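Human: Note token order:
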Amino acid sequence: MKGFGGITLLMLLLLVLLSYRSRDALSTGPPAFLPEKPSGIYLYLGQGFPAPGVHQFSDGVTLGGVMELTLPGAGGEICQENAPELPLLSGELLEYNAKEANFGCFRKRWMRAGMRIALGIPLHPDQMDLEDWEILPGIGPRLAERIEMDRQINGDFRSYAALERVRGIGPQRIRQWEEFFLME
């Protein structure tokens, strides 16, 4: 019992010292370092994955790497012409279709534009469809159809600025949407 009073006094002294130092630290300004924005890419793991939804992976992750991390031993092939060793891009959606116990098929496509905007992933006009265009302010069904028709007739836009070739889209609309697009 004799030592209990000493320990209590020591703890009280420590608490007073810590509260004094933390109050002092708050009044001196920002911390010595600022936390970095998390690096990496966002992928949507869709059908066939055990935990579907948006997941963050390290930069440079490949389809083969995602397969190993999320479906170890599942086996599978890529059903498109995308090699498993090429890095994936932020905003891609992956699906896995298990045909048999040890064989499956992986597919890649793009997340919907609304989801990419919410995650801060820049859009590219050649990765959008009719529904994606209608998410942007000032684009209704008719303008979205004109954009898609222009791409069908004249080919990919290749850049955000090339949208001006579509009737009804001028410099003012381009400026209005620039926050959503990958800038060249």
